[in-house]
Specification:
With 378 residues, this protein is α+β, with helices and mostly antiparallel strands. It contains 17 helices and 6 strands. 51% of the residues lie in helices and 10% in strands. InterPro entries: DUF4192.
Length: 378
């Protein structure tokens, strides 16, 4: 992902940009931002302390992304930050990647490891203010968000659906149970209409969220059920690009859908976040997906990609277009609706069960590491 118009010409600029690159204000963290020419190509983040072997795959990732230089920033006390900065600096230089700047930040002050002059880098550190930075203003203008901390980011994907959403979902499910069974005379035709309507709902929802609006409860419930059909879900996956609308849409559905319906939407949120380099968000979305369905294949695939620090481009380049999906899968058939039928066969859990599921999702341990534009930390 290319972040436009963020000019990082000083340590203060770098420190102002980092929270928007990782999605939240880091603490006790190591951040490495790789650049190619004028563009920030990717950013990785680790919790500190970090084992040196966990950094070994970093250079290979940066090389795959054609990174030529990097900024290194450690957040926290010197005893925690300096060993990690030294290790990653050594690895970068050994891999032929120039370290343009390396910093430590703590309590509103920074120290530069690259500067040895007390006139510009005093021993007591240099104060900085990210809130008043022009870089921060530009980041917000381009739709980037920096939440106060990692906990705030986690809460942004937790369930917030209420009784009204539950009632609408139950009504839509009851309506869809009237779909004809496979083998019925018109079953394939009905399936074809259902898929066509689902594809249209996906595209319409992306446009809706791109305009700053959102689905009502019925629209959200119907789209959540549409996504049980793999062809509809894969349409949504194939459409993902750098637009913030994809994250807004799938985050909203991840929060509003019933727990048993959330795995496809949460997986799409993970894919959209990963595509934009928001891998902390991607990891948290995968927690939601795998809590809802531990065997959900899309979530498992994305988790492996994050764990192994794959570049988003590696999987994106293998994604078929909607036209290729039509060619590969052929015309819709009634059997395509089998996952939807399985979902419809289950009644919605009662409020107590739903609360327990939401609590389990919120407290589950991280299933994939997170950072921004990388797959590097928890």
């Amino acid at each position: 992902m290319t972040i436009p118009k963020l000019v990082l010409s000083s340590p203060a600029d770098i420190l102002a940009a980092v929270p928007y690159l990782v999605g939240f204000h880091p603490a006790d963290s190591l951040v490495v931002a790789g650049v190619a020419g004028p563009d920030v190509r990717l950013t990785t983040r680790w919790d500190l302390p970090v084992a040196s072997e966990d950094l070994d795959r970093l250079v290979a990732l940066l090389c795959r992304e054609a990174v030529t230089a990097a900024f290194v920033v450690g957040y926290g006390p010197g005893a925690l930050v300096t060993p990690a900065v030294d290790t990653v600096t050594r690895l970068l230089r050994a891999g032929g990647i120039r370290v343009a700047e390396s910093l430590r930040a703590e309590d509103g002050r920074y120290w530069s490891y690259a500067c040895g002059s007390s006139s510009c880098c005093p021993a007591e550190g240099t104060p900085y203010d990210t809130e008043r930075s022009q870089v921060a203003a530009e980041a917000v203008l381009h739709g980037l968000v920096a939440l106060p901390d990692r906990g705030s980011l986690r809460r942004s994907v937790q369930r917030c659906g209420g009784a009204a959403m539950r009632q609408v979902t139950a009504r839509v499910m009851a309506e869809l149970r009237a779909l004809p069974e496979p083998g019925a005379p018109d079953a394939d035709e009905v399936a074809a209409r259902f898929v066509a309507e689902g594809l249209a709902r996906v595209r319409g929802a992306v446009g809706l969220y791109g305009s700053g609006r959102r689905l009502d409860d019925e629209g959200a419930a119907r789209l959540g059920l549409d996504l049980a059909v793999v062809r509809v879900r894969d349409e949504a996956w194939a459409l993902i690009d750098d637009r913030a609308a994809h994250i807004a849409l799938w985050r909203d559905l991840t929060r509003r859908l019933e727990p048993g319906h959330v795995a496809p939407a949460a997986s799409l949120l993970a894919a959209a976040a990963w595509h934009r380099g928001e891998c902390a968000l991607a990891g948290m979305a995968l927690e939601r997906a795998l809590t809802a369905d531990p065997g959900y294949s899309m979530a498992l695939l994305l988790r492996q990609a994050l764990v192994h620090m794959m570049s988003p481009a590696m999987l994106r380049d293998r994604m078929p277009t909607p036209e290729e999906l039509d060619e590969e899968m052929g015309p819709p058939r009634a059997i395509w609706l089998a996952p939807l039928r399985a979902l419809l066969a289950r009644d919605l859990p009662g409020p107590a069960s739903a609360s327990a599921s939401a609590s389990a999702s919120a407290s589950a341990p991280a299933s994939a590491p997170g950072g921004r534009q990388s797959a590097s930390s928890s």
